[in-house]
Please model this.
Amino acid sequence: MAVDALGKCCDIVSYGRQLLTDPQYPEKVRTGRLDEIRPCLGCHEGCLGRISKGPICCAVNPACGREEIYGLNPVKKSKRVLVIGGGLSGMEVARVCAERGHNVTLCEKTNQPGGNLVPGGVPDFKRNDRALVKWYIRQLELLNVEVKMNCLITAESVHEYNTDIIITATGSIPKSIRVDGVKEVVTASDVLLGNVNIGNTIAMIGGGLVGCETALWLAMQGKKVTVIEILPEILGGPHELPHMNRFMLEDLLTYNEVKIMKSSKVQKSDANGVLVSNENGEIHVDADTVISAVGYQSDDNLYNAINKIDIPVHNVGDSRLVHNIMYSIWDAYELARNI
Ligand code: SF4
Model:
């Protein structure tokens, strides 16, 4: 790149989405605080995907575009807040509570934060999800949130914590599916995390976002993948995802030769694959591995067990209602700005 006598290579640098995500981006770059930059996910859920619905915002920055009415105020009285769960909504609720002046402890039962973003961020094309988790870790550090990993809290042990408020953010778990026959069905989450061995010919049951992204990731590794979706459209149809993301994912699936079967149902498995029925009759799909990606269900057991104790208990994120990244963050922000 050409550089002039003053060491400048240009007069103006223009940014788009990154400034929605983090308006302090230029200043953080100027002062070398790169690990404090909130990353853009390229999801378009909050910005271009909403352009026909009203003012644009940002999935990871809920106050974007409405800072004056939806920004954060310092708390009048600091409280002790115990956040149970270190996934996305747990980290967001902890971050916002701490930023407003509460004294926050976050307990996560596994050895790493991130929740469903951990498997979700495995494909390289999802690296910004990993960057978002890193950003939260850094923010919680800067805000002096006490973070305890490998810390399982139960309905009994919760009483050991001296706290004013409890927030459960225990997330969601993949729904399981059973297929009659001889094949074991493994979840997309376990495949992404490398918890199970898989072969080279894959039947993916479920053509939602997780199923399609996992199928793409496997096809990019040279595996032969068939996605079997019970609905007439993959990715929830034309209104579920912002159209630019849907078109790109569909094109990448085609380019990587992922076979898509819509309006199709897996009936049973045999030693060589699965039997699928659709309007064309019954079709055998060769597969040495059957993977399910049929959605998530709230893990709300802890909230249900403790919500009658004598201090306020709130439930947030997927453990309240399974949704996407944007609504997990927005749900947590809304709760935390009102505590
Ligand atoms: S909504 Fe998504 S794509 Fe748009 S600026 Fe925010 S993180 Fe980036």
